[in-house]
Amino acid sequence: MPKSRIRKKADYTPPTASKQAANIKLTNRGWVAPVMLALFLVGLVWIVVFYVADGTLPIKALGNWNIVVGFGFIAGGFGVSTQWK
Q1: What per-residue string of b and e applies to 28-63 under the rule 16 or more CB within 10 Å gives b?
Q2: CB neighbour list of residue 39: distance below 8 Å, 6 or more residues apart
């Protein structure tokens, strides 16, 4: 069976300065971690206060929906965490 020809690949040459990508400007995201942690803590405290106060706090009219509000704060914390770099 005949052998196929081997193609020689060209050596790597780095791109010149004119073809380099532009510098990426990163925005300041120092607010993300504190907001994320604050939302986690507010949600946790909301749920704990609801259970400890036997349903009379934080908002009595909501009843068991206070748990949903607490988990909503926690979910908001996870949503903010997607902005963290």
Answers
A1: eeeeeeeebeebbebbeebbeebeeeeeeeeeeeee
A2: 73, 74, 76, 77, 80
pTM: 0.64
Containing 39, the helix (H) or strand (E) segment is helix 32-52
In the chain, the percentage of residues whose pLDDT exceeds 90 is 47
Going from the C-alpha of 20 to that of each of 12, 23, 74, the distances in angstroms are 16, 9, 42
* CA 81 – CA 36 distance, rounded (Å): 6
